[in-house]
Amino acid sequence: MDQYFIIDFDSTFTQVEALDELARISLRKHPDREKIYKQIEDYTNAAMEGKLSFSESLANRVKLLEANREHLKQLVTHLKKKVSISFSRNSNFFKLHSDNVLIVSGGFKEFITPVVTEYFIKRENIYANTFVFDENDNIVGYDRENPLSQEGGKVKLLRQMDLQGEIFGIGDGYSDYQLRESGIIKKFFAFTENIERKSVAEKADHITPSFDEFLYINKLPRAISYPKNRIKCLVVGDVGEEAIDQMRKEGYDIRHKDTIEQKYLEEAGVLLCDEANQPTPEDLENAGRLKVIGCFGRVASRKLSETACENGIIIFDDPKYNPRNVDFIPKRVIAFMNEGKTHMSCNFPDLQPPRNDNAHRIIHIHTNVPGILAQINEVFARHNINIVGEFLVTNAQIGYVITDVHAGYSKQVLNELKAIDHTIKFRLLY
Fold first, then answer.
1. Cα(196)–Cα(261) distance, integer angstroms
2. Hey, what domains does the chain have and what are their CATH numbers?
3. What is the per-residue pLDDT across 12-34, written as a single tens digit (0 to 9) for each?
4. pTM of the entire structure?
5. Which of 137, 203, 330, 405 could form a disulfide with 69 if both were Cys (CB 3.0 to 4.6 A apart)?
């Protein structure tokens, strides 16, 4: 059975509402611009939450814009920088499913098409409204015969299309939910990476904080093996908000606590802490999910550093109050989590492998004893898996191996790698 993916544009494919952004461009010199911005945003939110008909909202917003083709060019440039992070990193999914991904939006083709076609989405699979211009290229209205300009427009359009197959809807607004309510689509996924509309989310089959989560739930190809919104980032002590924002933008589930408690540490994949609030070596013995510690200050003791290493937990630290650490620590943590880079860690051997987007990356951390690399490669050889690149570094305690392999292997391969004697931690990175 064919699968179709119906994806909204505003606040879903992109981080923003395009008409709101267009107003900020076209009205930037208007004396009442702040008042008009607010009016447009209110109309947008009322429609997205189902409190105002979409057709009425659209008409009111377009009337307030005072925009032209030159403003649209500026908007497109802006929107290309505002593609939702999880959509951006999964561009390969759109390439693989270009026949089955449809952008269905109450927005306008004039700004949607230049943005989404850069992600392998076909022009004929873009369904949206179109502006009407006067002889001076000013926007004076839109095609009101287009069903997407009308209340329940997405439902009307999909009924006309009569797609045969399993249809999934992904969006942030009430018009996206209406597809599920009408029975046209199998499941509606409320996309909350950019905004969560509670009145919509509570009606969804699933809440998906990122596109990675949608792909993971449906066992579809994705850029990262495990959605970051499922990884808890525990924050303890004096950690700068700028650093936390970087982790939040990456999609991690942020949890603030005053002190390190074992029950929260056991749930965490990432720990950010200050010099006065570090875990003890004993704490780390039972922190089976913890992969990385970012310490804003120096690590308390050599024993803590060594215990972390023995348990496959990397630590990045920096002198207390160093102006760079608000940026340095999260960037090191993110580079490790995303690509396996250990550069400037205080307890792991140094490795900075280049990213390979045409391969899957596997990380194997093991006790530093002879013969482990041979066992890893024997597993790959036995399953006829081609190794694209491989990197091994060691210190006195551990061996750290990154292997990039071609796609197309079974779970059995991963299970055999995990089962190698002296394995400490194993990760399929992407």
1. 30
2. 3-217 (3.40.50.1000), 228-339 (3.40.50.720), 360-428 (3.30.70.260)
3. 999 999 999 999 999 999 999 99
4. 0.84
5. 137
